[in-house]
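Protocol step 4 of 6: record predicted structures for both targets in the notebook before any analysis. Target 1:
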Amino acid sequence: MPDRYRKVFWFLIILGGFFLLLILDPTIQSFVHTIKNIKNIKTIKYITYLGDGSSQIFLFLLFLAGGYFYKIERLKKLGKVGIYALIGSGVITQTLKWLVRRPRPNISIEKLLMGPRDLGDLSGHFGSFPSGHALSSSTVATVLIAFYPKLRYPFYGLVLLISLSRIYLERHFASDVYAGIILGWWIGRGCIFYFLKTQPGDDPMGSYRSFLKKLQDYKAYLIVPGLILFSGFLFFYGLTGFTLFDVDEAVFSEATREMIETGNWITPQYNYSNRYDKPILFYWLMALSYKLFGVNEFGARFWSPTMAVALVIMTFYFLQRTVETRAALLGALILSTCLEMSYLSHVAVTDMTLCFFITAALYTFFLGHQSSSETKKWWYRSCYIFMALATLTKGPVGAVLPLLAIVPFVIATDTWRQTLKEGRIVSGILLFLAVAGPWYILEIAINGWEYINKFFIFHNVTRYLAPDRGHKGPIYFYLGIILVGFFPWSAFLPHALARTISTRLGELKRSAKIDPLSFLATSWFFTTLLFFTFAKTKLPNYVLPLFPAMAILTGRWWSDYLSEKLKGSRGIKISRIILGLTSLLLALTFGTTPLILNKLAEKYPGRFIESLDIRLGCWLLAGTFLIGGVGGTLTLTKSKRTGFGILVLTMVLVNIITLTAIVPPVNAYFQGSLHDLANMVRTQIRPDGKLVIYGKLDNPSIAFYSQHAFIKTRSKEELKSLIQLPQQVLIITKTPLALELQRETGIFLWRERQGYALLSNQPL
């Protein structure tokens, strides 16, 4: 196995160990709690003090002082390296604690369920990951072992004791401690690499300065961290600023909560009944984030922005490897600043995760197709694994979409025989089945024909052939989605496609070699678009797997445009016209929205429309689209770099304004009432109480925030029979129905809020 794959193998082993401990955390914590109740070992609290960063800093200050006082160069170097390492570990620890905000094991169940409401929570209740004591101790031990290798076992033993003390004192989960040990080892090794590659008596910082001098193009090393920060800001910004939206977000979130509660890790359930809509992988991922962050909006949505950032970085590396750095950077920026990526990175649904795996499958296929014989098989194997993971995320479409792009590509490039031979189809299918097959086999074995009928036949065949729940659209539906969802870069897509196709036709006439990457991206775009165009059930998020292909094409277009390789002005003029008209259309849409809402409030008084105040946000968005879009259009030919920068800045502002001034009030209008009523149910319902949802309400967020099973009915007779039960019965319904019930039955009205009401058959 090549050295790079050996490193990947060990990385996956370490990551797998972390995920295993995440699953076992509750069991380990329960065991520790039992031991503490039997015998409380008081000396452990003294051991844990040894892992405190302040005492460790003091130790290295003593080494440093001793080195200078006795003129021992070894002690001076040890003191300096140790202090640098501890400062680095402290910064990383506190940053991760602030970002992850995992609840500690001893936190109350009430706080655990709902989690911190914002990033400003500094109570320490949500600072469990990673264990700072374990991380700093591991860092210190790694540095000390570099100077005193014969004492490695006592040092590692002390790290283990300190780490176990954190678990025993119920300050951290086992996975927190494990992550701290691994991160501490990496930090320690990094400091050793930078500071100990010197001769005796040299300045420890000398190697670091010489390292920087050797970097001829140090800016290249800042691109990836910059992209991570940039895309991370866009995709994580405002993630907890609004409650879960009905329907899909709340269904996935509640089904995962019930999975943890019931311990049924095979069949997802919603309202404690089997749910066959999607496969299992996304639920497992969400369950892991629940264990890290608590059962809250951040835990539910965590994987969407994470996968979005990973998709952007993966696209950059792929284009850097196959094209060049400028096209890679442009493609990554384009992918991270389009509207649909921003939208789907902020919701707890499968689409971003599916897009990541499908894109990874196509990237690894292409690298295998183009690489040397030594690494070819590993790329192809990765392709099969990613297709399997995509299939575990959303079903057969996870394998169908990559194959739809690959088959035309290998046929048109006349490499299908070579691909069949080098791709090891038989072993690849076996690898695919080994990853994706076990869960499907278990699910079919447990639920039989019911699962086959509802998942494979209904959700994958029937929904393709017939519209489901009114989700339909005209044949050009997705062209409009691409125009708006890929804005502002959709303006340049037609010219990029036309240029690629015309160039390819010319190459075919001259029998020249086809540009393989452009052809794959074009095949990827058209096959995916046609597949969903002919589907009868249409939703905007279905075409997200198109976006990396479009980012590749438009990224290369912009790279050629900035480097003066793009000839001809007709296509550029058309792109400017599309950009200007789309910007004006969006500006007009948002500019007139407040006026439309005012007219509706006047026409339908008492319908609460007047409470939806998004005027400022709409006008800011209208101004941003007008100034940014039109400004970008006007500067596109005069100053190309400025034009690109204006468009990027425009989308950053659109993202901030939308998530600050539009989404929260819209969420409060549509979800606020039900959120408050569901929270009241969660705090007031008795252990044997029943929750009833009466009327035409399809709001899974009620189940998530109430943390309770519900009975759904539209029958007044059935509801009246439930009211007569001796135990407590709480009812959530719309206000007109609640007032009607109150008149007819004398039921108690507990709370009424903006069109919805909570009733009870017993007084509060």
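Target 2:
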Amino acid sequence: MTRPFKGIVCAVLALLGASFCGLVLFRVLQGALKPRTFGSELAALDKLVGRGVDAEGIAEKFLWLEKRAGGLPETLSLLKRRRTLALEGTGYGPDYAAAARAALARYPYAEQIAAVAAEAFALSGSAAELSAAANGLVSPNLTKAAFCARVLAGDFSSPERASRAPGGKALLDEALPLFPLSEPRKSALRIDSLLLRIFEGERGEAVRRAEALAAAEIDPSLRRFTALLLYSEGRPARAAELLASSSSAEDLELRAAALYKAGAQADALEVWEALSDQDDRTIRIRSLYNSAAAAKGEGGQKKALLEALFSLLSEDDLGPYGREAGLHGLIRYSRLLPAAEALAILEESAWRGEALVNLEILRRRTETVPPERAAPEVWLLLGKYPQNEALCRWAAWYFEYQHRYDDLDRLLANAARAGTGGAWLAEYQAIALLRQGRQSEAEALLAEVPAAERSWTVWANTGAAEEYRGAFAGALERYEQAASVLTAGGALRGKGKQAARLQLRIAQCLRALHREGDARRVVRYVLSLDPDNIEAKGLLQRLD
């Protein structure tokens, strides 16, 4: 090829190369100058999301797009992509929560944003924000989601918190039907709903609902809860009826207790006897102890049951209940024996260091020791167990019974200073005030005793205070309340003389109110309980 021709070829090639480079440069410049649109950047973001949370530039893309999101759909689309990263990559939850927080501030009434935010806050562990977001889920189709969010936030972790949560009770009621019957937690949720009503003072409504649920469905946990609720409501017979078809040992134990409280002692003993053959040693211990406590009389059956109980308690692994049953069983057993034999058994027992055993030893000794000699021993025992409330209470009874009022006043003052006493302390303080003729102060003190802690003696002493000042109608009402508490469940075994004394006070009030016919009827009832009651015989003669 000649030199001129080569020159022409090189020139042409150079011209073509320059043209190509210009075309490439034009394309590059065209791309650089092209405006960034939401759609194009979203497409670019999707490519980065597909490569994972560590893809370079992903944070910048999100920020650019979130600033330019024109409405709710675009905001939701970005949150959807942040959700993908949060679920797939560790450590991205906080960014998802921050974006949801900003979106929630921008669209406070958008339920879709509230739903997304609830999930984001759940992933990041922000309980307070999760609970607040759940408040925005108001549509019926989001009820279950709202409920689950509130559960995760801890709003239903206790009755107190559920009661404080806005609309908590209504939300729980609305969510319950959404769970299938096969859902294992459904009964627990129903029980929670009932407990919340009880906590908020709607006990009657809770009982009504519980009975309706127990009648409609055969669910062991719900049925047992209803039985416990009815038992605590003073309806033991209905509680026992609910558990009649159950074969679980736990339900049978509750049924036996309900039968006993309802006055069906023979039926209760039959159930306890069946339970005493269980493989579970704890159940056998409880059944033997309860059978012994319920057995009539002081003869061979009670002793045999307690001896069977002790044979189970001879092993080392007693457990907390076994120790408690052994302690109280020993005391019951000792009361079946003459004083000397009982003292020997108590003093040699494995429970010798227990305050109640030492108290029982002291009680048996005081049967034959004059009060002036027994009182120092009582004080020695009180000094050994200064914080034992059962011991303080017995000592108060003993000093009152023996008319050792100086000792009683000293004991009550010590108990008040130490904070040892409960309702019994207020009761004995009121009795002391009554002795001093300060009946108004006594009434005020007894009125402060919570209703749940009022024994029959509290009601009786309140009646005595009112009778003392001549308020016979009020006294009559209090005595009748005392009689109702004393004989709750219909059982009078072992309470005949106490019931007779109460009924005699009722008769005295009726006479003072000029209701002689009613008084006469009550006195005759007193004599059926205690035929040797001289005071009742004298009152009947005066009424006749």
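Step 5 preliminary note on target 2. The two ends are 161 Å apart (CA to CA). Confidence is low (pLDDT under 50) at residues 8-34.
Proceed to step 6 after PI sign-off.
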